[in-house]
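Researcher: Going back to the complex we discussed earlier. I've cleaned up the inputs and rechecked each line, so this should be the final set. Can you rerun the prediction on the complete assembly and write out the structure?
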Amino acid sequence: MNLHAVPFEWYLILAAVLFTIGAVGVVTRRNAIVVFMAIEMMLNSVNLVFISAAQFLGDINGQLFVLFVMAVAAGEAAIGLAIVLALFRNKRTVYVDEVNVLKW
Amino acid sequence: MAELIGLIVAFPLVGFLLIGLGGRRLGSEVRIGALASAAVGASFAVGVWLLVELLGRPAESRTLVLRLYPWITAGDFTAELAWRFDQLSALFVLIVTGVGFLIHVYAIGYMHGDRSFARFFAYLNLFIFMMLNLVLGDNLLVTFLGWEGVGLASYLLIGFWWDQQFEGVRIRWTGEAAMKAFVVNRIGDFGMLVAMFLLVLYAGTLRYDEIAGAVMAGTVIPPHIITLIALGLFLGCTGKSAQIPLAVWLPDAMAGPTPVSALIHAATMVTSGIFLISRMNVLFAASPDAMAVVAAVGIATAFFAATIGLVQTDIKKVLAYSTVSQLGYMFTALGVGAFTAGVFHVMTHAFFKALLFLGAGSVIHALHHEQNIERMGGLARYMPRTHWTFLVAALAIAGIFPLSGFFSKDEILWNAFIYGGPWLWAIGVVAAFCTAFYMFRLYFLVFHNSERFDHHHQPHESPAVMTIPFVVLAVLSAVGGFLGIPEALGGAAIPNVLEHWLEPIFAPGVAMLHRGSMHASHTLEYVLMGISLVIALAGIGLARAFYYRESTRPAALAERFRRVYRLLWHKYFLDEVYYALVVDPIYILSVRVLWRITDVGIVDGAVNGIARVVGDIGERVRRLQTGYAQSYAVLMMAGILVVVWYLASHTGGK
Amino acid sequence: MNEWLSASPLLVVSLAAVVALLVDALNPHSERVTYRFSLMALAIALIAAIATIPFRGVAFSSMLRTGGAPAVLDCVFAIGGILTILAARPYIAARNFEHDEFYTLVLYSTSGMMLIAHAQHLLILFIGIEVMSLSFYVLAGYFRQTISSVESALKYFLLGAFATGFFVFGIALVYSATGSLDFGGISNAITSQSLVLPSLLPIGIALIIVGLGFKVAVFPFHQWAPDVYDGAPTVVTGFMSTAGKAAALGAFIPLVLDIVPFKEQSIQTVLALSAAGTIIIGNVAAVVQRRIKRMLAYSSVAHAGYMLIGLAAANHRGLSAVIFYAAAYLFMQIGAFVVLAILERDVERSVELDDCAGLATQHPALAAAMALFMFSLAGIPPMAGFFGKYYLFTAAIEAGYTWLAIIGVLGSMVSVYYYIGVVVQMYFKEATAAPPTVDPTSVKRFPLVVSAVAVIVLGIVPSVLESLLSSFWK
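Model: Rerun complete. Updated structure for the full complex:
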């Protein structure tokens, strides 16, 4: 199927839907790992916008940006998992809602 | 020559730094006290030197300005760190450092043995430094720096004995009194800030001479803005100089050590309001409405405070209300355009009120911190020097010829009569009667009458380091008035020195008032003078009849006019009214209607009020901070939706 | 000027960070080497930054802006980094937790901040923000055996990554709408009305503002800040809440300059409302805190609000004021946090207000320094904080936001209450319990002295910095 046959708007709509699913996942899931996966999903929907926009505009910059987003996501994954690990060592839990020593 | 102004300011600063950082390491009490006093004395000496320099010049070039560097530049607007030594600031500098020096010396004796002796003197020097900035400032910003600084020093000094018990309306200890003073003053500062913003906005300058120029040009600042600026500044003055409606902090400020009451809360800091209006006389004169407000507030304060003074029993509180009342006189003078008279009274008042406070301190000292005049009496026998000097000061404040208070007060009343009308004069005279009465009630109850104090300790005269300042101040209180002998008495032979001296400062303001030269007859002036003298003598006589010996008459009178007595005893319930009408309802309201907080700021009690209200809201706000990361994320998403919706729906721009 | 030279502060710090990481990898437990190396690198960067201030321009195919305001911000970051490293060493050493990655992470976060300040391209901005934030996530959780530190890191990380999602989505939308990623191109597209997909632009800009607003911690994206600042190691909080904030505010400046021409009023309105909310929330919540660290954390939110005023004003005076305030705030806040770090007895127990009672008699110099910082934070003249606020509020009035200036003034009046509360404790209360034991070896005088002197000097000669800053917009 020819990529050009699909209008840019459709990509945008798909990306928006994915992004929203991700954002809702962040606020509803308890498990820190799942929350983090939801964030990854948001980032990936952004990648979709970049690639389709680059195609639509005939410009290379958008595709380049995607590489950087992926690199940053990898960095975030490394640090995120390390933090969750440290949390588990201290508290024996990975549930976000059980972490609220700091409040008020 | 102008560089010397820097020295005036530098000495107390150096003293503050040395004593503040060195502390006890500097050595004995006497050394610390001597260092602090010397710093102030040196400033005084330089002040005198510069005064002599000014005297040698023609009247129109008697201004020295020292510009250090531009402090703030923002676009076209520049404010420099600069000091101005001219006729007005010279007078204030000499009062501040002169009286200040005497009080420093006195405090060496008074504070003897205090745990924080060095800290006390560091604060006193800090105060003098800030006060000098206030009166020497070449622009409103430098004055404002000093204005805030003296507030800070005053706060530190009122709370010097932080955790002592202290009786006041909803105040239990001295720390709370300090906080009250601080907050009430910040309300006044708010007015100052507004005025300064408006000045920058409309006149583009904060320099006094340029502001005066802009006002006189007539077109630069619209008239209603001038009124607004003047009222904003005046709000600041009511805070610092304890006028209605911000008067309530001063009596509570008596929680501080007595030298502080004498220095800050009687002789110097509280007169900064008078200084500011005198400095800005052109601006005030350009707004008849603002002038009327100043006069009305002044006379009302003079009257109410004097009547409250009639029944108080704490020796320092009587003097505090007396101060408030005398300041009211000064504002009345400014309000009717008699700037010289107002400044004249600042000077004489500094002498005799400082002396009264120091005398009171000496008495308190002798009776081991007894402040209730009902537990004193008969002290003339034990403390002859305190007694005689106190009597001089009391006669001066009552306005007995030829002591200083007579001349300055009469000048104010005379001006009130011809420029303000008979009513203003009449209220002033009634207040003068009250003044004479409460002052001699105090005098007789303390120094005569029967001995009602605890005889465990024999009262004793204070050491020479304390009584020598008494003598100096007593002489000044006695003869200080001769600087401003009215034309009606002196004629051409004895000139009114002060008026000639200040003429270049006030001439533009007076010209602004558009008065024809008013030549009231001398006969009228003599008559009015006579009346006020008789009134003062009557007040003294009545006080003598009531209080010279033990008598049931005062109690009977109080019983007869029980309601009036209660009203005065509770200071017209001013504090209670503020709490009942403003603070409490707002507190209650705020629990239901959170957004009412901003209104509390207008009145006293705001300390507790605001703190409670804000604290209450704060408690609620902090509960929003649940500690759950995801609830934060929900708020973020809500915020994102609002921002996106707002920007997306407001396309098209301007 | 050569583009390599004009970008030298950024290059020095980035290179040093990489080298430090390599040294660490090849040679573990080289704390002293890394410590000295990081300090040296930041000092060189500081000198380079000062030297490049006059050379304004763009470098590397218009990816970076150099000289001028970015260079001044570089100085702020470098000084912040130096003070933090100096103060941190005794602090973490006393807790037996000195590892060389601490210094490396400070270098990395500083390089991220510099990237943000220099960014002239959305990609650079994105990378800069991520480099800074990722380092901060780790620094916040540096005490990995302490629950509050780990919690702080987790919250910061989850919410930060969440905000990043919105931020890049905004970039993607702006890119789709304008077909450009560099600020010049975006600005051209907006002013020449040659937008590809105009309807996406406002959404994209909104999301970018949100992303930056999160990093500055402004209402309603502020809620992470009190918890994170509270839980993170004290010296780290001082660094994050000042230099980190300054960087994100710096990123707003080109945005305001280049993109605001599009729908000026509505962006300004959003910023102004947010500033008002931030000031109110931060100050009001700070009043009721008993723990000084958390009080300063909330008040840090309020200070972000003050600085946002300058951006909402969107005039030249406002932009100068933001940088001035960021510099002043760096000194007073880091100073206060260094004092706190000295007073802290152990990691778990934070300093309460009552713990300061009687400090003035036991440690007069420490108390005097703290009082100075408190007065400056409260905005009492003639300290640096006063002039910062003065510039911000006048800028707001000039831009017609008088109501915002009034909220700012009222907010600082409230803040006087809690800042002076600390001074009252130190000077007027007797010590109740055992006096705070101050381990003399843990006191690094240098950062305190530098901060105190800077607070005073910026208060006495504010016009020097101010006139330098205002020369950048001509």
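Model: Worth noting: Confidence is low (pLDDT under 50) at residues 590-605 of chain B.
Researcher: Good, that matches what I expected from the previous run.
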